[in-house]
């Protein structure tokens, strides 16, 4: 949400500057062609932003109409309490992501190499290992890459150049259960529905409420939990 707000503010500044230049047409070194180019690619950038994730469900015509009404001081066609807007926007994001995730998982489970569990968790084995299988109390040493269903990467141990280790009973439910179907030496993809990930919570800058997550994982080692004394 913070990223979207920052981008919108930047876009508004660019558009205001371009509009001001167009009206005065007296700023040295700025031509109408340059204004047109900046204006056009601002629109392209806005389109890319709106296509990402749940924002692609917005009605583009109404987005443009809202921008036009604001710039032209036409008065608003809809009334909304500014205090209510953040909550309604978050509700829209949540419901949109849940719908997109459901559609993705419904299609994904039709792939013959994808296994779906009763709770909706899906996994695909890329390489089978022959080592130990972890249980929820164990710690695993892994490499992983996490993405949203539109392919945007939000985390990666590969990118950091070092493996990570996690206690399976202290991570999201999709990991806790998913790794119990893997053996040391395995490589797999976990497709994790929202309720087995972060649910209606936002996580970091990229994971919005209701997001379905995809993890490419490699299991290198299982560290058994010490028996209780």
Helices and strands in order:
Layout: H1 2-24, H2 32-51, H3 60-72, H4 85-108, E1 115-116, E2 122-127, E3 139-148, E4 153-156, H5 157-160, E5 164-167, H6 173-178, E6 187-192, E7 213-223
Antiparallel strand pairs: 1-2, 2-6, 3-4, 3-5, 3-7, 6-7
**Total domain count:** 2
Enumerate how many helices there are, as a single number.
6
Distance between the termini: 47 Å
What characteristic shape results from the CA principal axes? elongated
Order of helices and strands: HHHHEEEEHEHEE
* Helix content percent band: 25-40%
Mean pLDDT over the full residue set: 85
Low-confidence region ranges: 1-26
Structural class category = alpha+beta
Main beta sheet: 7 strands, antiparallel
CATH topology of the largest domain: Chitinase A, domain 3
CATH class of the largest domain: Alpha Beta
SS elements, strand count: 7
